[in-house]
Specification:
By secondary structure, this protein is of the alpha/beta class. It contains 21 helices and six strands. It has three domains: about 140 residues, Rossmann fold (3-Layer(aba) Sandwich), CATH 3.40.50.620; about 130 residues, Serine Threonine Protein Phosphatase 5, Tetratricopeptide repeat; about 170 residues, DNA Cyclobutane Dipyrimidine Photolyase, subunit A, domain 3. The structure holds flavin-adenine dinucleotide (FAD).
Length: about 500
């Protein structure tokens, strides 16, 4: 493994112990896991068994029961696969700081994998301070480690691409799939860390959001399912990825975002698999434009989002939008809006726009929204909110609540992009100023937007028929909200309205 992935976190030394502790926080998988490999190699070096720990913290910001259900499914599979390698998985129902403080006195050292969200960075700082032994972090959920990719916040995909692409092939480390020589399965470990997966799956922690009852997520969690889905994508869709990925009426993308978010798959392993499938040798210089387009999303765009989140603490608020965009949006705020909606109107898909409503319903029901519709969805929240600040908060909150892959650097960068982040100024428009604009006519030119609406209507009907009672009351609420929305006045009458 490349040494650039490894960082000493707390400057403390190793010591004799009963085991090496691997804190699994962002890479919930027993294969293609470089942090696990590193921990296993150190355990063997010291002649110790390896114990893994996951902290299932209830009340993770915005996380719903559906998020926890998916997380728990992946964790259950990881436990099974780790046990096959003689590695015991402990699950703490407390903060990493508390769990690691409880276990670290028996550990020779702690190895952690790496997440980039604020809460994950805080956990790492607190947990490493609480451990009275060496604490190492291994970055295996990105292809190019964040600090190697760039030591500053990048302006755009263009500026990051120039840094990442020349390094790409050198960072496609193959996992050693190490199996520690000594098993930890029969170690005497605190009973409080034993986990009842059946109990957890039956009553997962997590919030019930106003439309949670309508959610019917059919995506199965776990590494094995995700890898099978990825192989099907390679076989059936990669050859048309460049043209199909922006067409919501085609299911032309990989569907990997939730599995990547929960750490069930490794982006490095996905790139390696895609190269092997396509018979290509270099990810940095692909002959196939389709594969190059896919690597652009999976590596450049995804790691641009990591760069964004790693370099600023305000990534989930309007302050993260660049100055030029905030200036032009402030001027645009004085313009009359085509419509004005409150948070609940957006949440209930009660706007005048059938395409926007379909996208919102798709997200609520399936936990997914097509990437092209996500851009339209975010742009229209900006167009129909009282202020860009309010719009930003609405988009973040809804995406985090209802998207299975939400609460991810990609989500924060995606929302910020709708407000001008990682983009450039375009021709001026009312409300948007020079921030890039999208409208329904653009959708209709690009694909059969009405067929998309019909497909979501069908999905809603199917979902409603399984929960008749719940959906009846929701519909009533939506009709009420919808009426109140239409009677609301627009923000200002002085400036031109959107065509
Ligand atoms: C308003 C808005 C909100 C978004 N919210 C999220 C979110 O919460 N979580 C999330 O993972 N992505 C988010 N995205 C980015 C993108 O839409 C999704 O990653 C993509 O649609 C996921 O589908 P897929 O896995 O089939 O993608 P594919 O097209 O198959 O791409 C493969 C992988 O590349 C990465 N990727 C693709 N597009 C982007 C992108 N534009 N930016 C960064 N990474 C990308 C993802 O990890 C994705 O799984 C958002 C975009 C916007 C505009």
């Amino acid at each position: 493994m490349r040494k650039e992935r490894i960082r000493e976190v707390n400057g403390k030394g190793e010591r004799p112990g009963d085991f090496v502790l691997y804190w699994m926080q962002a890479a919930v998988r027993a294969e293609d896991n470089l942090a696990l490999d590193f921990a296993a190699s150190l355990a063997d070096e010291k002649g110790l068994p390896l114990v893994a720990l996951f902290c299932l913290v209830p009340g993770f910001p915005s996380a719903s029961r559906e998020h926890y259900r998916y997380l728990i499914g992946g964790l259950r599979e990881a436990e099974f696969e780790l046990a096959g390698k003689g590695i015991r998985l402990l699950v703490a129902r407390s903060t990493p700081e508390k769990a690691i403080a409880a276990l670290a006195p028996r550990a020779a050292l702690v190895v952690a994998d790496c997440g980039y969200a604020r809460i994950q960075r805080e956990w790492l700082n607190r947990a490493s301070a609480a451990a009275d032994c060496r604490f190492v972090r291994v970055e295996g959920n990105v292809v190019v480690p964040a600090a190697e990719a760039s030591d500053k916040e990048e302006w755009s995909a263009y500026t990051l691409r120039r840094r990442i692409m020349p390094q790409l092939d050198a960072f496609l480390d193959q996992s050693a799939e190490a199996v520690p020589r000594r098993s930890s399965l029969s170690l005497d470990l605190p009973r409080e860390f034993a986990v009842d997966f059946d109990g957890l799956a039956a009553a997962p922690p997590g919030k019930r959001h106003p439309r949670s009852a309508e959610t019917r997520i059919d995506e199965k969690p776990g590494r094995r399912t995700a890898v099978a889905r990825f192989d099907a994508f390679l076989a059936e869709k990669l050859q048309r990825y460049g043209s199909d990925r922006n067409d919501p009426s085609r299911d032309g993308t990989s569907g990997m975002s939730a599995a990547l978010h929960f750490g069930h798959v490794s982006p490095i392993a996905l790139v390696r698999r895609a190269l092997e499938f396509a018979g290509e040798r270099s990810a940095g210089a692909c002959a196939s434009p389709e594969l190059a387009a896919f690597i652009e999303e999976l590596v450049v765009r995804r790691e641009l989002a990591v760069n964004f989140v790693a370099h600023r603490d305000d990534y989930d608020s309007y302050g993260a939008v660049p100055d030029w965009a905030r200036r032009t949006l402030a001027e645009g705020s004085a313009h009359r809006r085509e419509a004005l909606y409150r948070f609940e109107d957006f949440e209930n898909a009660a706007t005048h726009d059938p395409y926007w409503n379909a996208a919102q319903d798709q997200m609520v029901i399936t936990g997914r929204m097509h990437g092209y519709m996500r851009m339209y969805w975010g742009k229209q929240i900006l167009a129909w909110s009282a202020s860009p600040e309010e719009a930003f908060a609405t988009a973040v909150a809804l995406n985090d609540r209802y998207s299975l892959d939400g609460r991810d650097p990609n989500g924060y960068a995606g929302v910020a992009w709708c407000f001008g982040k990682h983009d450039r100024p375009w021709t001026g428009r009312p409300v948007f100023g020079t921030v890039r604009y999208m409208n329904a006519n653009g959708l209709k030119r690009k694909f059969d937007a009405d067929a998309y609406v019909r497909s979501i209507e069908a999905l809603k009907e199917a979902s409603c028929s399984t929960t008749l009672n719940t959906s009846r009351s929701t519909e009533t609420a939506r009709r009420t909200t919808s009426k109140s929305t239409r009677s609301r006045p627009a923000a200002s009458a002085s400036a031109p309205s959107l065509s």
